[in-house]
């Protein structure tokens, strides 16, 4: 299964989820479907992505997540 982020700071990011135990899924794992990042000024924000739809991409099912906005003031 593939997760794909649309719009926002993670636009175009894709993650491949494996069903095989012990096999690595991605080299950068989303924390659910929100991402913590530090802005240029040093403040932490949380970018949230919401499930939008399923898309068929050949042999894989793709879950598409659209950008829902940022929440300021999150800490790491």
Give descriptors for this structure.
5 strands, 76 residues, single chain, five-stranded mixed beta sheet
List the helices and strands and how they pair.
Blueprint: E1 2-6, E2 14-16, E3 34-38, E4 44-57, E5 60-72
Parallel strand pairs: 1-5
Antiparallel strand pairs: 1-2, 3-4, 4-5
The oligomeric status of these chains comes to single chain
Radius of gyration over C-alpha positions, nearest whole angstrom = 14 Å
> Distance N terminus to C terminus?
28 Å
Please tally the helical runs, counting DSSP H or I stretches of 4 or more residues.
0
Report the biggest beta sheet as strand number plus sense, adding barrel if it closes: 5 strands, mixed
Give the helices and strands as they follow along the chain. EEEEE
- What helical percentage do the residues reach? under 10%
Apparent shape: elongated
How much of the polypeptide forms β-strand, as a percent range?
Answer: over 45%
Secondary structure category: mainly beta
The figure for the number of domains is 1
Structure description:
The chain is an all-beta fold and 76 residues long. It has one domain (2-72). It is built from no helices and 5 strands. The protein has a 5-stranded mixed β-sheet, with no helix packed on it.
Question: What is the structure about, briefly put?
Answer:
The chain is mainly β and about 80 residues long. The chain is about 0% helix and about 55% strand. The chain has one domain.
């Amino acid at each position: 299964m593939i997760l794909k982020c649309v719009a926002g700071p993670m636009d175009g990011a894709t993650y491949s989820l494996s069903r095989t135990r012990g096999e690595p899924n991605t080299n950068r794992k989303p924390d659910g479907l929100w991402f913590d990042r530090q802005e240029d000024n040093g403040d932490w924000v949380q970018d949230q992505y919401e499930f939008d739809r399923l898309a068929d991409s050949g042999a894989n099912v793709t879950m598409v997540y659209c950008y829902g906005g940022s929440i300021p003031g999150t800490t790491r």
